[in-house]
Amino acid sequence: MKNFRGGKIVGNGGRWQSLGLPFVFLLCISFFLAGFFGSALFSQPDEWSMQPRPKPRVLESVAEKSTAPEEDRRFDPLAHGKSGEGFLTSIPFQVLSLNPRALYFPNFATAEQCQSIIKMAKVELRPSSLALREGETEESTKGIRTSSGMFISSYEDKTGTLARIEEKISKATMIPKSHGEPFNVLRYEIGQRYQSHYDAFSPSEYGPQKSQRVASFLLYLSDVEEGGETMFPFEGGVNMDSNYDYSKCIGLKVKPRRGDGLLFYSLFPNGTIDPTSLHGSCPVIKGQKWVATKWIRDQEQEDYYPKSN
Ligand SMILES: *[C@@H]1O[C@H](CO)[C@@H](O)[C@H](O)[C@H]1NC(C)=O
Asked: What GO cellular-component annotations does this UniProt entry give (predicted)?
C-alpha cells in the first residue's frame, strides 16, 4: 500500500467514500491491469516475465519449439513389432561433434552400477596391451598405453549389471548387442594415459580385417579429479595437416564423470575410417580414472554368446 500517495487509505479501510469516485475507478482499473498482466505472466512466460524464467539448463525440448497445442504433443506408444516395446524410452544425449560423430550421455549408468563393475574388474587387472602394426614390438610401443585393464563379457557378470548396460548401449546405437566385443574395463592411475589412436583398424596398417570396429562406447565409472579427459585432437578437422604429436592432449576434451557415457563412431556411414575419430586419454593428473569400453563391430561377434560345451 505504500505506493499509494495521498496517504488517505493507508492503514484504514473506513474512509473509501471520502476519496471520491474517480479515485476508486482508477483503483479498479489498476487492479484489473495488475490481474491481467499477472495472468499473462503465467500463460506467456517468455514474453511477459520481467526476469526470464529459468530454462531447463541444456535441454532443447521439442515441445518448446512446437506450435501445436499441449494436448497434441502427447505421444502414446504405437502397436509394435515382435522385438519392439510397448513403452517410450528416453536416453538424453548431447551431440558433442559431428566430426567425428560423438554423443555424450549424462547419467547413463547409476553410481551403484559403476561401483559394481569396478569391484568385478579390480581383482583381474593386467597391464593393457596394444594391437601391433607391422614392424611394431611391445618394446617399441611402450608408453603409448599405460593403463591396466581386463575384459569381461556380460554373461560372465552374475549381477546382471553389464547385461543391463549392454542393453542400453544397443538401444542408444541401434546396433545389436551381439556386435559388441566384451567390455574392456580400464584403470588409469596418475600419469597413465593412452596416446591418440584409432579404434578402427586400417587394413593398410594392420592387414586385412575379418570385421571392423564401427563405434566405441565409453562408460566412465569414476570421476577424475584432474586430467584423464578423452580427447579428440582432430575434432572439427583441425590439427590434421600439422605434425601432431600423438602424446599431446589437445582438441575436444571430454571430462570423465561417474556414470556418464561417450559414444563416437570410427567409421563413416560408407564404412571408411573417419580420420577425425582419432582420440586418446589424457594423463591422469589427480585421482584415478576407471572406464568401461565397449567396441562395437560391423560383424556379429562369435564369442558374444557363452560357449555351449
Ligand atoms: C566415404 O564417406 C566420406 C564422408 O562422407 C567421404 O569423405 C569419402 O570420400 C567416402 N569414401 C568412399 C570410398 O566412398
From this structure: endoplasmic reticulum membrane
β-strands 194-197, 183-188: how paired? unpaired
Compute the distance from residue 145 Cα to the ligand 1 centre, in Å: 30
Closest-CA residue, ligand 1 atom 4, reads: 268
- Can you read off the three cell numbers belonging to residue 263? 559414444
On whether the CB atoms of residues 229 and 253 are closer than 8 A, the answer is yes
The CATH architecture assigned to 94-304 reads Sandwich (2.60)
Domain boundaries of the chain, sorted by first residue: 21-60, 94-304
Q: Are 76 and 87 in contact (CB under 8 A)?
A: no
CB-defined site of ligand 1, < 6 Å: 268, 270, 272
CA of 270 to the centre of ligand 1 (A): 6
Q: What is the pLDDT of residues 173-215, one digit of tens each?
A: 999 999 999 999 999 999 999 999 999 999 999 999 999 999 9
